[in-house]
């Protein structure tokens, strides 16, 4: 066969039926061969490519492309009928009734799949524009965006497999639960999935629902007035993959004018008043404690409902089985789609470590090298005060009878081992290098004698490693304990003075649940003191930024709040609306988990409304939830948190697990951390959650305690892939989930995932950036739509199934 032309087998040119002609290709740069399997003659087109089956015209674009759709304009379209032989002198007779393929059929089929994938993206690009503008101005025909793959379809009116009465009851309860979460998310300016939101609107069309995006919650549609039409119509493939490099000072933040509002607490929740004499708050819209308690009671009754548990369990099993069938039918198609994408693979797609603590974000070898280097370079620097006497770094080590030569990783003793399983107290002790709390204070604290100098240096080294990797990002947790009013001021000053900033890092503020310890040490009088120390500085910085310049700048890079501590501590998980208010909580007993979460959520809700009114970024709630302890923690997370960390106990509560799926709540999971503390690796539910379609991502939690390599996130992925036999598509889906649920700015995500990433289904996926095949995204989208349709169809037409013939 000639490498410069294409061959078509036919009796005559006039008999060619191009609807039934089959196409084959030798290589991406070799034109396709068109063969009529019933004849033995060939037509050779003397052109370098073949894009149009019209024999008199070639519509190729430019020279040297690997894609037939992007080939060079032909110098000729002359047709030569060759009835004897080909240029390559094939050994078989042309008059033979069939052609023996020169390549295995599987290889030919794989190349065909790649060619179709390229053709599909070319057609899709012609209809694409960027951002939300596309939603308003361009009508894309749905079938042009839906990839071709093998689907599993369940026919019949009732596809749930449960009695109609149980189905109607389950539908009513699930919709009630989804409406509850939608209300809590809308009030607090947190995100809720648009697909589920559309179904909820059909139930209560009069109810106002807000579509919220991350951080500034603004899409690029807001920029349309500032840019030209050609820029708006820029196809996604021309939208830059890497965000523009920041050259300006990251702390050069715009300051809105001061308001001088009066800030007061009402039953533990801060509110804004116009003046000292005003009786009505300006932002009264937040769930009251009594309403929250009622909603908790409803949810707890719901998760214990027998028929609902059976329904949700059956649906979850169905989702698992459906995914297994999808993999069996489409695994090769997904792999072919990934192979068709140039330059993109798992190593160079964006990943976000969605759950990692700043104090343990380095591995043990990194910490050891840093301690040795610091001891060598800053030996005579005063770092602490012991019994009223100043001590230099060298004196601290001399008091422990240690030198730099003596230090080893084993001596640091910061790595978790088999002795930390179900022993959270021993795990916390691992934060102290060499068992010395003094070393933790010197190297891993922001508030110490040296004002966190060494901690800032090691954080910047970790940030530099992330920047070097280019595609890895992290959301580091910094602690605010609520012990004193100036904690926020010190933390902001630490970040700005030492310029602890990176485009690859954003901050979450973790609030440990340690009131009982502070109270026993007489640091606080009541629980209200913790709330005052945590939230009052934030309200003051929002109201009067010029009086708190450093905190105002720092908050621009804070994305949310986390609640941390040992969840397995004994507590009373439920309480009613008559529970004492924070100012009256003066007992030494620690408040329950739900009490902490409610007051964090309520104050954050008012703060978000205030900051949104002022044009500032808002925050999200992303607590540790469901790692251990009672399942009521997961109910709190469902109602009030945008995302959660861990979520292991969902495997025991099918109703909540199904609701987390329907509401697409992000779950940051850390299998290596869980393996050392609460759950053996092979029992971790992450692969089960992923198969069912929950939004899960891999995270490291504490690299200092659990990881060995310089890239702990890649270590987490590699172990998960080996143990659970995850495919390349699964790993890329996990990475895409991590970006979606992260708090990085919307504009940055557009570069990472594609300018249309907020759209539903395949329209929101750009395989050239995410390496997630459209087949997988379409499967996830269609499956979610099916589940929601089953529930809402019954709710809207309760007798439709019963009356159907």
UniProtKB/TrEMBL annotation:
One of its GO terms (molecular function) is AMP deaminase activity. Its EC number is 3.5.4.6. PROSITE patterns: A_DEAMINASE. One of its GO terms (biological process) is AMP metabolic process. NCBIfam families: AMP_deaminase (TIGR01429). AMP deaminase plays a critical role in energy metabolism. Catalyzes the deamination of AMP to IMP and plays an important role in the purine nucleotide cycle. This is AMP deaminase. It comes from Glossina austeni.
């Amino acid at each position: 066969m000639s490498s410069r032309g294409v061959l078509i087998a036919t009796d005559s040119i006039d008999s060619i039926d191009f609807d039934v002609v089959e196409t084959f290709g030798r290589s991406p740069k070799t034109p396709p061969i068109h063969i009529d399997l019933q004849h033995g003659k060939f037509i050779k087109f003397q052109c370098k490519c073949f894009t149009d089956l019209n024999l008199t015209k070639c519509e190729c674009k430019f020279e040297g492309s690997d894609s037939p759709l992007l080939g060079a304009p032909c110098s000729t379209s002359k047709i030569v009928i060759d009835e004897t032989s080909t240029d390559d002198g094939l050994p078989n007779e042309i008059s033979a009734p069939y052609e023996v393929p020169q390549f295995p059929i599987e290889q030919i089929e794989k190349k065909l799949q790649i060619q179709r994938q390229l053709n599909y993206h070319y057609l899709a690009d012609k209809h694409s524009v960027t951002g939300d503008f596309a939603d308003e101005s361009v009508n894309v025909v749905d079938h042009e965006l839906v990839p071709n793959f093998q689907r599993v379809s369940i026919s019949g009116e009732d596809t749930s497999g449960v009695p109609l009465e149980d189905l109607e009851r389950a539908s009513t309860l699930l919709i009630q639960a989804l409406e509850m979460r939608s209300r809590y998310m809308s009030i607090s300016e947190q995100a809720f999935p648009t697909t589920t939101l559309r179904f909820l609107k059909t139930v209560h069309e009069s109810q106002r629902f807000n579509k919220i995006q991350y951080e500034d919650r603004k899409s690029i549609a807001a920029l349309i007035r500032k840019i030209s039409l050609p820029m708006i119509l820029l196809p996604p493939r021309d939208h830059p993959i890497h965000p523009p490099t920041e050259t300006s000072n990251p702390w050069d933040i715009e300051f809105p004018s001061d308001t001088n509002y009066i800030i007061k607490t009402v039953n533990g929740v801060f509110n804004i008043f116009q003046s000292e004499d005003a009786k009505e708050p300006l932002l009264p819209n937040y769930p009251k404690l009594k309403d929250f308690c009622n909603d908790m009671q409803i949810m707890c009754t719901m998760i214990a409902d027998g028929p609902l548990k059976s329904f949700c369990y059956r649906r979850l099993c169905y989702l698992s089985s459906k995914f297994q069938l999808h993999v069996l039918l489409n695994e090769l198609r997904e792999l072919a789609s990934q192979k068709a994408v140039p330059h993109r693979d798992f190593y160079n797609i964006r990943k976000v470590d969605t759950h990692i603590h700043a104090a343990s974000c380095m591995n043990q070898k990194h910490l050891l090298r840093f301690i040795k280097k610091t001891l060598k370079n800053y030996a005579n620097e005063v770092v602490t005060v012991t019994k009223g006497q100043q001590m230099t770094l060298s004196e601290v080590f001399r008091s422990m009878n240690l030198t730099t030569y003596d230090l080893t990783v084993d001596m640091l003793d910061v790595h978790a081992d088999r002795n930390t399983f179900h022993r959270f107290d021993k795990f916390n002790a691992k934060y102290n290098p060499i068992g010395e709390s003094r070393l933790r204070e010197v190297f891993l604290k922001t508030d110490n004698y040296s004002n966190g100098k060494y901690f800032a240096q090691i954080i910047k080294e970790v940030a530099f490693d992330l920047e070097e990797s280019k595609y890895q990002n992290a959301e580091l947790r910094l602690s605010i304990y609520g012990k004193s009013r100036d904690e926020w001021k010190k933390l902001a000053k630490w970040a700005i003075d030492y310029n602890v900033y990176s485009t690859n890092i954003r901050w979450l503020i973790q609030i440990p649940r340690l009131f009982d310890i502070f109270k026993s040490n007489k640091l606080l009088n009541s629980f209200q003191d913790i709330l005052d120390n945590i939230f009052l500085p934030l309200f003051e910085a929002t109201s009067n930024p010029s009086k708190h310049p450093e905190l105002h700048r720092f908050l621009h890079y804070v994305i949310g709040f986390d609640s941390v501590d040992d969840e397995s501590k004994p507590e009373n998980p439920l309480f009613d609306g008559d529970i004492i208010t924070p100012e009256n909580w003066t007992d030494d007993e620690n408040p329950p988990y739900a009490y902490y979460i409610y007051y964090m959520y309520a104050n954050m809700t008012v703060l978000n409304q205030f900051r949104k009114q002022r044009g500032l970024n808002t925050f999200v709630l992303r607590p540790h939830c469901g790692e251990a302890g009672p399942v009521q923690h997961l109910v709190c997370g469902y109602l009030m948190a945008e995302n959660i960390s861990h979520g292991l106990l969902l495997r025991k509560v099918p109703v909540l697990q199904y609701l987390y799926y329907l509401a697409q709540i992000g779950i940051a999971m850390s299998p290596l951390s869980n393996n050392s503390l609460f759950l053996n690796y092979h029992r971790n539910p992450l692969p089960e959650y992923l198969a069912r379609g929950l939004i899960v991502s891999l995270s490291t939690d504490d690299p200092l305690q659990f990881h060995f390599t310089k890239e702990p996130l890649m270590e987490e992925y590699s172990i998960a892939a080996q143990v659970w036999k995850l495919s390349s598509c699964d790993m890329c889906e996990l990475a895409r989930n991590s970006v979606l649920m992260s708090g990085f700015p919307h504009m940055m995500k557009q570069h990472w995932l594609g300018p249309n990433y907020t759209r539903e289904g395949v329209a929101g996926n750009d395989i050239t950036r995410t390496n997630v095949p459209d087949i997988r995204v379409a499967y996830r989208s269609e499956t979610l739509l099916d589940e929601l349709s089953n529930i809402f169809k019954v709710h809207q037409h309760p007798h439709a199934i019963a009356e159907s013939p």
